What does this fold into?
Amino acid sequence: QVQLVESGGGLVQAGGSLRLSCAASGHTFSNYNVGWFRQAPGEEREFVATINWSGYGKYYADSVKGRFSISRDNTENTVYLQMNSLKPEDTAVYYCAAGSGWKAMSSYAYWGQGTQVTISS
It folds into this structure.
């Protein structure tokens, strides 16, 4: 099984940037698609972005398209989420997940513990 650990969250002013990292255990990391999801207090968890096994297939939620960028380095077993032009609405716990899916949460079998992102206005 895969273990995922997110890092890079924190408190940032609106308009600022953060880069989240998702570090995976094992040497089969490249077999999986990796997605980023987020969950704000009192809200349902929602899809943010995903990247396929090769790193060439990417998809973003409309709410973050043009501001966020997902990438992966399979040699480092790490997926990144570069977040620019952050808005208070981006405040949430961000989770990375590995699996065979695209944007549906049910298609991801492995989840990290989450990292808090807080954007002040």
Observations:
- The radius of gyration is 13 Å.
- The mean pLDDT is 94.
